Amino acid sequence: MKFGVIVFPGSNCDDDTVGVIQSLGHEAVKLWHKDTDLQGCDFIIVPGGFSYGDYLRSGAIARFSPIMEHVIEFAKNGGYLMGICNGFQVLVEAHLLPGVLLRNNSQKFISKNIYLKAATNNALLTQELDRNKAYKIPIAHAEGRYFADQATLASLQANDQILFYYCDANGQVTEEANPNGSLLNIAGICNEGRNVFGLMPHPERAADPDLNNTDGLEIMKQLILQMA
């Protein structure tokens, strides 16, 4: 598989993401935000960071970068696309995923390890994850509070589009385990076509034994299982 990792001015997780993909034995190339060629990639990742300095709203300016026209077309034609943290914000701004990401209810930037659990196995990103396991993954965001109207939330639940919930170390989905006030403790979702994924936590930052945490590697591995 060939993965493309988009780089905007202010992206800071592109190298981490490329490194994890390469460690899994697959090709990964960087795609500059002004490019108009996706270089034949099978899977596109919009990484974390602070695209355009997070001016206006996080992801709102990046959504209009030249490459995004081609990314949107790629996704609408069934191509696999994932946004992590700022990438998730870009994808909701591009209306490729429903809902919005608002400022954390603490009104502060949060950078720490949290726990999340898979809500379903009915998606590429969660297909073989243990739904009883609490995965320790770092977060680093100021606008990560997932919000949608009641009709959208009901649709996400009915269509099994919720991918991850924030939980405690024992896998319990509680208000206390919710780091940012996201509705229903939502940490990640997919689109109705199940080819576009977004999550706020950073699995690519928990994918190296030198960091004493490889829980994120288990999530990233899901992206290549379709090749098995």
From TrEMBL:
Q: Does the keyword Transmembrane apply?
A: no
Q: Where is the active site?
A: C85, H202, E204
Query: What does this chain do?
Result: Part of the phosphoribosylformylglycinamidine synthase complex involved in the purines biosynthetic pathway. Catalyzes the ATP-dependent conversion of formylglycinamide ribonucleotide (FGAR) and glutamine to yield formylglycinamidine ribonucleotide (FGAM) and glutamate. The FGAM synthase complex is composed of three subunits. PurQ produces an ammonia molecule by converting glutamine to glutamate. PurL transfers the ammonia molecule to FGAR to form FGAM in an ATP-dependent manner.
Q: What is its main location?
A: cytoplasm
Originating organism: Aquirufa echingensis
Keyword Transcription regulation appears in the UniProt entry: no
Question: Entry's CDD domains?
Answer: GATase1_FGAR_AT
UniProt gene name: purQ
Which GO terms of the molecular function aspect are on file? phosphoribosylformylglycinamidine synthase activity
Provide the protein name.
Answer: Phosphoribosylformylglycinamidine synthase subunit PurQ
